[in-house]
Amino acid sequence: MRENRLISLDWAMKRLLRSKSNFSILEGFLTELIYKEENDKIEKDELKKSLKIEEILESEANQEKENDKFNRVDIKLKNSDGEIIIVEIQFSSQYDYFQRMLYGTAKNITEYLNIGEEYGDIIKVISVNIVYFDLGAGDDYIYHGTTNFIGMNKKDRLKLSTRNRVRFGKTEPSKLYPEYYIIKVNKFNDIAKNSLDEWIYFLKNAEIKSHFKAKGLDKAKDTLNIMQLEGKDKLNYDRYIEQRRDEKSYATTREIELEESREKGLKEGIEKGIKEGIEKGIEKEKIKMAKSLLDVLDIETISLKTGLSIEEIKNLKIL
Q: pTM, whole model, 2 decimals?
């Protein structure tokens, strides 16, 4: 029995989470994700880091469209540190998704560097990717990617100079470069071991269990309650869920058809191979018999007994 039937985050990102009154939902999720490792080391709650959203930034990719297929949903925002955070949800498998992540960060870096500004003014971009397919080859369900410079001889990690630290307020080059987070939702086993897992459970099941305590989930539980949807919103959401089911069904159907096609091709290939093998075996036996009769029978008689042509038997005699 589901405890709380909620609106899925991808639909909420399109419709509800752009309101400043709902920023705390995304703030909670991003705090749990981006500051998890740092906050796990801090014992006192009042000292733990918390992400604050300043504004939602519009782009062509995250604008709402009437014909939006919801296969990909993203939202771009700026936090209180002036960093750009892109949250993207992708349902269908895409072979070049890694390159698309790279393109997205590169595009935003250049987009926010004005003519005449120094390279030191380049803005930090964090790319958060929530995918519902098995991206890459790996067993985990959360991955974090950064850029680090490791010494080829001494294996030390390159740090920023004192002057750089003062100028940029960072200690390592990795804090200046884009960062990537990948959450492979379908890899999650539904066992929430920590507060970030509680969010991933919600991403996978659109459900928040009563004992979940992760930052932002209380607000999500109230705001994303499906029972609060009325009129056109309720109709649009029901249509969207139906469309998602259809897309998943189409993808499954394509996989089944492809597998059936492979099996059929394999079966036909095996049958053809067996047939060709038998024919070659029979031909080989005919030739063997013909060779053994060359010294005792004439060519015409050998042809009648083996089924080989007179020309084939003459060639055997020459060989």
A: 0.73
Q: Structural domain of residue 260, as residue ranges?
A: 255-318
pLDDT tens-place string over residues 244-290: 777 777 677 877 877 777 777 777 777 777 777 777 777 777 777 77
Cα(77)–Cα(123) distance, rounded to whole angstroms? 13
HSE-CB at 150 with a 13 A cutoff on CA atoms is 5
Domain count of the fold of the chain? 2
Q: 223 vs 8, 17, 48, 63, CA distance in Å?
A: 11, 9, 25, 21
Distance between CA atoms of residues 271 and 264, nearest Å:
11
The answer to whether residue 194 is domain-embedded is: yes
Asked if residue 243 belongs to a domain, the reply is no
Residue 138 neighbours by CB distance under 10 Å = 11
Q: Are residues 110 and 64 in the same domain?
A: yes
Say if 3 falls within a structural domain: no
- For 218, phi then psi, to 5°, come to -60, -45
In angstroms, the CA 283 to CA 227 distance is 76
One-letter-per-residue 3-state SS of 220-258: HHHHCEHHHCCHHHHHHHHHHHHHHHHHHHHHHHHHHHH
